[in-house]
TrEMBL record:
The lineage of its organism: Bacteria, Bacillati, Actinomycetota, Actinomycetes, Kitasatosporales. Gene3D superfamilies: Cupredoxins - blue copper proteins. GO terms for molecular function: copper ion binding; oxidoreductase activity. Residues 123-193, 259-354, 404-518 form the Plastocyanin-like domain. Signal peptide: none annotated. This is Multicopper oxidase family protein. Residues 1-21 are annotated as: Disordered. CDD domains: CuRO_1_Tth-MCO_like, CuRO_3_Tth-MCO_like. InterPro entries: Cu-oxidase-like_N (IPR011707), Cu-oxidase_2nd (IPR001117), Cu-oxidase_C (IPR011706), Cu-oxidase_fam (IPR045087), Cupredoxin (IPR008972).
Length: 529
């Protein structure tokens, strides 16, 4: 599709809701999120989602948020704990989106006859991303709807072998996941364990950092118009590759722990432990800290055997990267996402300043440990089954609605069972990407290893392909393919999902259902080769 006039117009025509976009560090200190701890094996908590007014970069916004703050509190638990969370939905529809005429100076297009509001924008539920818990009943059940005024009691029993690392919680109601993600609805969840007892790490200053992407209209609110995903037809230089119906001018803000371009302080020589979540619904972040090497110690919640020295780390939406960083030359160093080609040529993501690392004060200390912990091992079982899943692109069913992306030719249908697996077995899933955009695939409940990958773009140094690493979200190269090896743990059975974690893709149907049957249950024929 073509570029709507509003986006083709000079940048100056679009009001900037941030009031400070691209003007350098906003200067706030990175805050530590408030912590909710488990006690005696139980984390008991109420999570209220309601409209609120977080102040980001000096601007008072109007967004739906958890417990009155952006992002939500940090939950800290241990493997084997029970988490009881009462989700209360106190959201209210924010009304009709702003619509104006074509000659309006704000650059809107006229409303279509049919205004497509986000489907069920204020219906929600809860997903604990990466926890290897039951997807059934009152646990991590993706088929639950909590309407406005409703509530739901969730109970998650974290297994005793859940790796110690960074996970997160966020809404996962099909159709409104993107919208609620662009409100910043999410929070980090740390499972404490063996890696925290590595002596060098136990002594370090820890920073849990949540990167949000907020989509804001001129009023500082998240517009409730439908999002049409595209794969690059829109100018990414606005960092906004989506069009809406009706078109509403909007800009993105990318706060860290709710602060716009905050300052993170470290002493020269001091080693800190950073645990970073990319909660942006659509944007990959090729994370760099100017002048600093990263010592990568864990990915998607799963710690490594030893640190890996890397110049940068790419976080797809949903990924968590954990690393150590040693304060270098005194002074200010940019924390940024490097320019990156997430889609086809000429649609590059521009550089994005996220914050500033300020190295200052007396000489600090700290050591990079040689050894960490024993990572989980893939059980030595024969591959019970190999499946092929093909991602294709087709025009949206909605006229002018851009593209949508299908899995094996079909959009999401929650009443269908696409893949049925037997718990206690190992399978290989080969994802073939027939599209020219990277689609980061997330599979619920069980993490996986990358057994094979083809089609990494030439010269793209952002990929980590070590087959011993574990992930729960992994990118498919454009026009390439990835084979994921998974063990379906026997104690987490039921119906769940797998999907692209570019949330506008997920909401438009790039999601499949996955039934994990109890061990010994007879599988039936299902899609796949
Ligand atoms: Cu996708």
């Amino acid at each position: 599709m073509g570029i709507p006039d509003a986006w083709a117009s000079p940048a100056g025509r679009l009001p900037d809701p941030t009031g400070a976009l691209g003007t350098g560090a906003a200067g706030e200190e990175l805050i530590d999120l408030p912590v909710v701890n488990s006690r005696s094996g139980l984390l008991e908590h109420t999570l209220t989602v309601a409209g609120g007014h977080p102040v980001v970069g000096g601007r008072r916004l109007g967004l739906d948020i958890y417990n009155g703050r952006l992002p939500g509190e940090l939950w800290r638990v241990r493997a084997g704990d029970r988490v009881r969370v009462l989700l209360r939905n106190c959201m209210e529809p924010s009304g009709v989106p702003p619509v104006c005429t074509q000659d309006d100076a704000s650059g809107c297009l006229p409303a279509r006859e049919r205004q497509t509001l986000v489907h069920d924008a204020v219906t929600t539920n809860l997903h604990v991303h990466g926890l290897q818990v039951s997807p059934s009943g009152s646990s991590d059940n993706m088929y639950v709807s909590v309407p406005p005024g409703g509530s739901r009691q969730y109970v998650y029993d974290i297994p005793s072998d859940q790796p110690s690392g960074l996970y997160w919680y966020h809404p996962h109601h099909h159709g409104s996941t993107t919208h609620q993600g662009w409100s910043g609805l999410c929070g980090p969840l740390v499972v404490e364990g063996a890696v925290d007892r590595v002596p060098e790490i136990a002594d370090m200053r820890e920073r849990v950092i949540v990167i949000n992407a907020l989509r804001l209209d001129v009023n500082g609110e998240n517009p409730t118009v439908s999002i049409f995903p595209t794969a690059g037809d829109e100018p990414f230089t606005r960092d906004d590759p989506f069009t809406t119906d009706p078109v509403v001018p909007a800009r993105m803000m990318f706060p860290l722990n709710g602060g716009l371009r905050p300052v993170v302080t470290i002493r020269p020589g001091e080693v800190q432990r950073w645990r970073v979540l990319n909660a942006a619904p659509h944007r990959e972040m090729w994370l760099h800290v100017d002048g600093h090497t990263l010592y990568w110690i864990g990915q998607d919640g799963i710690p490594f055997a030893c640190p890996r020295q890397v110049p940068s780390l790419l976080l797809a939406p949903g990924n968590r990267a954990e690393f150590l960083i040693r304060g270098g030359e005194p002074g200010r160093h940019c924390i940024y996402a490097a320019p990156y080609r997430q889609g086809p040529a000429r649609t590059d993501r521009p550089a994005l300043e996220l914050g500033t690392l300020e190295v200052c004060g007396p000489q600090g200390s700290g050591c990079i440990p040689q050894r960490l912990v024993d990572p989980p091992r893939m059980p030595r079982l024969p591959i019970a089954r190999r499946r092929t899943l093909v991602i294709t692109r087709e025009p949206s069913e909605v006229p002018g609605g851009g593209a949508r992306f299908l899995i094996n030719g079909e959009p999401f249908d929650m009443d269908r069972i696409d893949q049925e697996v037997e718990a206690g077995t190992v399978e290989e899933w080969r994802f073939v990407n027939r599209d020219d955009f990277q689609h980061p695939m997330h599979i619920h409940v069980n993490p996986f290893q990358v057994a094979d990958i083809k089609g990494i773009p030439e010269g793209d140094t952002s990929w980590q392909t070590d087959p011993t690493l574990w992930w729960d979200t992994y990118r498919l190269p454009p026009g390439g393919e990835v084979t994921l090896r998974m063990y379906f743990r026997p104690d987490a059975t039921g119906k769940t999902v797998f999907h692209c974690h570019v949330l506008p893709h997920e909401d438009s149907g790039t999601m499949g259902t996955l039934l994990i049957s109890p061990p010994g249950a007879r599988g039936r024929a299902s899609t796949g080769a």
